[in-house]
Amino acid sequence: MLPFFLVRVTGPSMQPTLREGDILLVRRVGPSRLEGGHVVIVDLPPDPAGRPRPRSVKRLTGPDPDDPARWWIDSDNPREGVTSFDPSVGSLPHDAVHGRALLRIRCTGRKLGLSRL
Fold it and tell me: What range(s) does the Peptidase S24/S26A/S26B/S26C domain occupy (predicted)?
């Protein structure tokens, strides 16, 4: 398995930091290499009706104070997105975090923009 992969951002939950269509360079990392504030790719638990949710881009807010083997996640856009504050989500186990976003690639017209995350 390669240590890096690309993800395309969909949806408004990480605005203004990320926009729909941005591409992220993501590095697979273990729990010891993560900390609050990192932008990560996660698997969310099923919704309240039991339907699977897509893999998502979220921000780690920190370890769960009741269980350090789990992470709290949030969206940058307070009006959009699923977060750990949603009772159907809660904190996520370490193995639900697939990697940390290191670089944002944004195409606007003929310009290509790169920025570190």
Answer: 5-45
The architecture of the domain spanning 4-116 is: Ribbon (2.10)
On the CB side of 15, CA atoms within 13 Å amount to: 10
CB distance 113 to 105 below 8 Å: yes
**How does pLDDT run along the chain (117 residues), one tens digit per residue?**
789 999 999 999 999 999 999 999 999 999 889 999 999 999 999 999 999 999 999 999 999 999 999 999 999 998 988 899 998 899 999 999 999 999 999 988 888 888 999
Quick check: pTM over 0.70? yes
Q: What is the DSSP letter of 83?
A: -
Tell me which DSSP letter residue 90 carries: -
Residue-wise over 27-63: b if at least 16 C-beta within 10 A, else e?
eebeeeebeeebbbbbebbeeeeeeeeeebbbbbbbb
Length of the chain: 117
